[in-house]
Amino acid sequence: MRINNDDLEVVIERKKIKNIYFRINxxxxxxxxxxxxxxxxxxDRLLNDNIKSLEKMYQKVLKENVNKEKVLLLGxxxxxxxxxxxxxxxxxxxxxxxxxxxTYLEKKSLKVFQDRLNLLAPSFSSLPKFRLRIRKMKSRWGxxxxxxxxxxxxxxxxxxxxxxxxxxxxxxxxxxxHMDHSPAFWKEVERHFPEYKKARKELRG
Length: 205
What we know:
By secondary structure, the protein is an alpha/beta fold. It contains seven helices and twelve strands.
């Protein structure tokens, strides 16, 4: 299928499910998961009807692939130099590969996130006792979970600007008062982070 002047392979996986789902993976394939009786013709019609969504997905994949070729720390691109050991000296990242360095940064992100949380939390009243966790996630930047009393942040945020990290933290802390995305929730977010709309748009870009 042709998306933004590129020919993408369509991969279909039929399962015992009720709905049809599609995404574009890192290999630039349109990956379709669907019920077993859905025909190829129906899938083609669905993809053509959602061409705009596919174009946006593809642009996001292309952008993510470009970023994987860079060492990004808190929104800043670091110069990369090969070395067997990972280290950072004067804005230069040394290591066996760019991917290895970015993975290292993601695993070490908890301290950065905790420091930002400690700065932001005092502006909230009546926060419950909870734990901060990190996890690499594909579709969410953060999760507030009442049952486990945790806030989980996406390790990929370590590559984003502090401005965006702070927004995600404020977003999740606001969920302790409002577990939905009601107008009252967004008012709470705005009270602590007036430029939240700008941050949301940048994270979606």
